């Protein structure tokens, strides 16, 4: 089956984003495909490149980056939610040298999410 994951939980402070990460790993292990991971609402904090957890904490942003690279799964952030929460790329930043979008993440519109969701067998929101 082909899945699209929609993550609305923040990178830290709640369990949802980490559960989404674990779920994504389990899906691939069982032979399923993931065409996109879309972060919206507070979930856009997963793509904030300025998140620096303590050395003894799991770095979820980095884990998403590795996961995406290894499995060629795009990590998309909702543009509206990103701008509201201060996660910006060079196109959205008022000053182009002040961006904080983590490498491997892309800011996209809701249309991108919907296009992938229409092609998916399942859309799971965490």
UniProtKB/TrEMBL annotation:
Pfam short name (any one): DsrE
Localisation: Cytoplasm
Principal location listed in the UniProt entry: cytoplasm
Presence of the UniProt keyword Transmembrane in the record: no
One of the GO biological process terms: tRNA wobble position uridine thiolation
Single GO molecular function: sulfurtransferase activity
Key words, A-Z: Cytoplasm, Transferase
GO annotations of cellular component type: sulfurtransferase complex
SUPFAM superfamilies: DsrEFH-like
Protein family membership: Belongs to the DsrE/TusD family.
Matching PANTHER family: PROTEIN YCHN, SULFURTRANSFERASE TUSD
NCBIfam families cross-referenced by the UniProt entry: PRK00207.1 (NF001237), sulf_tusD_dsrE (TIGR03012)
Protein name per its UniProtKB record: Sulfurtransferase complex subunit TusD
Species per Swiss-Prot/TrEMBL record: Haemophilus parainfluenzae
Species lineage: Bacteria, Pseudomonadati, Pseudomonadota, Gammaproteobacteria, Pasteurellales
